[in-house]
Prior knowledge:
The structure holds 2 protein chains of 2 kinds.
Chain A: E1 11-18, H1 22-27, H2 34-44, E2 48-53, E3 58-62
Chain B: E1 2-6, E2 9-14, H1 24-33, E3 37-45, H2 61-71, E4 78-84, E5 93-99, H3 101-106, E6 114-122, H4 126-129, H5 142-153, E7 163-168, E8 174-180, E9 183-190, E10 197-205, H6 210-224, E11 228-235, H7 242-248, E12 253-263, E13 267-276
Antiparallel strand pairs in B: 1-2, 3-5, 4-5, 6-10, 6-11, 7-8, 8-9, 9-10, 11-13, 12-13
Helix pairs in contact in B: 6-7
Amino acid sequence: MAVSGFEGFEKRLELHFFGDDPVVIDMGLRLLDFESIQEVLDAVQCTVVSAVGNQYFDAYVLSE
Amino acid sequence: SSLFVYPTKVIIKTCGTTQLLKSIRPLMNYAQDLGLNLCACRYTRGSFIFPKAQPFPHTSFKEEVIYLEENLPINLCYRKASVMPSKMPSHSWHVFTASDQTHLVAQTMPAEITFTMEICMTELDRVLARKFFRRANDGKNGDTAGKEMTELTGIDDINPSAIICDFAFDPCGYSMNGIDGDRYSTIHVTPEDGYSYASFECVGSIYDDHDDIAKMLKKVVQVFKPATFSVSTTCSSHEVWTHVARAIEPLGWKCRSCVMDEFPAAGSVVFQTFTVARR
């Protein structure tokens, strides 16, 4: 094993939310603007390098 | 690293020395602004190759659990933390789940029973790993170089119906997200010899054709040909994990250990480890 190198093993977090407003639930967290998402990622120390989405969800490739 | 944002669900997976758990508070705050409250949390990881390099709160699983306990709302009262061992002490699976009563009940009668499969591969085949290094002065950017790696390695054949968003890092490394309807898949690669690593993760339904799951697994391990890998399967009520060894062992890997544990709301987590059969 190398003395030091890049840590490949990931940490994975899955969070589920609920709400009562059907209008919000339809899009929910997808309503978050990019600045808010980046602020969350700042806490983690990542940034978005690429993104794609469809009618169901948004997917972001992050730095690191 | 990857982030998936659904209307009421977020999945975030990060490598290196990122401080993933620090995303919980801001995510909860932003969700609350939208009228959404946290009802369940699941945190998983393998064993770090360089644990001493990890910053707080990832300095140990114990610290991570304390951080989670302190930062999750009290209504997520059904909590469990466990380290699932394997025959290789350096390959353990760390799981923490927390759920509130509503989510716990909802999970007992879901509309569709889904599973999550997380594969962690180490000691990648050196020739195959070389494909994840950028060529010097290739005239490409991260997106175009990523697309080239996706095609060159056969990653685009794992699920041909997925839309792939890929990125190649400089000088090496690769990440991709696949989207196929409401399902995601993701691959991350650290190709450097000595600590090479690749991960694959996907979601599926227990009603999927078992042959399709087997075919996908075979394609994944053949892209990297790792000496060692683990497969963690999380599913509320079905033995999807039984198809894993059946698909992989004929290709030359042997299942060395298999452990199972139950988690409130998340269901059964099955952790299997494989090594090359010749060893």
